[in-house]
């Protein structure tokens, strides 16, 4: 049983680290590079696709991290139940559900976007959407980074 608990803690912490990396890459690499595209139509299409795919991966990593950390808390004997597992899983839930809090901001993925379905778009609207999405990813990166740090320090502190 201790091996299963340690494995759950490891999987949850690593998933939270991957979530931090995804948000970091989106906010510092992918979204700023969209603004260098020559016209608004390909930028709008690429932004919508990026938001859709990122949302899928972010929610998956957040769910895996939260589930594994809460399972390890539940499986742990009461004398070694550490509250950092609850706080770390809370950081994962907040980072994964951040899109719900910013429902009016950024780009909201609405299923598959076909390149020809992107109608007339304004370049300023695309830039605003990319900047807002970049802000959301910076906040997500901060939340998940704090959770990842708590998880690493917690695992290191208990010697697992």
Automatic annotation (TrEMBL):
Location of this chain's protein in the cell: Membrane
InterPro entries in alphabetical order: ATG33
Q: Which GO terms describe its cellular component?
A: mitochondrial outer membrane
Q: Name one GO biological process term.
A: autophagy of mitochondrion
Q: Which domain of life is it from?
A: Eukaryota
Q: What does the UniProt keyword field contain?
A: Membrane, Transmembrane, Transmembrane helix
Task: Tell me how this protein sits in the membrane.
Answer: Multi-pass membrane protein
Please give the family membership noted in the entry.
Answer: Belongs to the ATG33 family.
Q: What is this protein called?
A: Uncharacterized protein
Organism name: Salinomyces thailandicus
């Amino acid at each position: 049983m201790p091996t299963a608990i340690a494995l759950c803690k490891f999987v949850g912490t690593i998933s939270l680290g991957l979530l931090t990396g995804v948000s970091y890459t989106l906010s510092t690499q992918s979204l700023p590079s969209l603004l260098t595209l020559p016209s608004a139509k390909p930028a709008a299409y690429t932004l919508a696709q990026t938001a859709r795919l990122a949302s899928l991966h972010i929610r998956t990593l957040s769910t895996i991290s939260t589930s594994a950390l809460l399972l390890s808390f539940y499986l742990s004997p009461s004398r070694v139940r550490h509250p950092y597992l609850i706080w770390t899983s809370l950081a994962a839930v907040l980072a994964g559900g951040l899109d719900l809090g910013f429902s009016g901001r950024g780009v909201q993925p609405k299923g598959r976007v076909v390149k020809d379905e992107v109608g007339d778009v304004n370049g300023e609207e695309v830039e605003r959407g990319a900047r807002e999405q970049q802000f959301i990813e910076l906040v997500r990166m901060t939340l998940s980074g704090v959770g990842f740090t708590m998880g690493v320090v917690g695992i290191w502190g208990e010697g697992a």
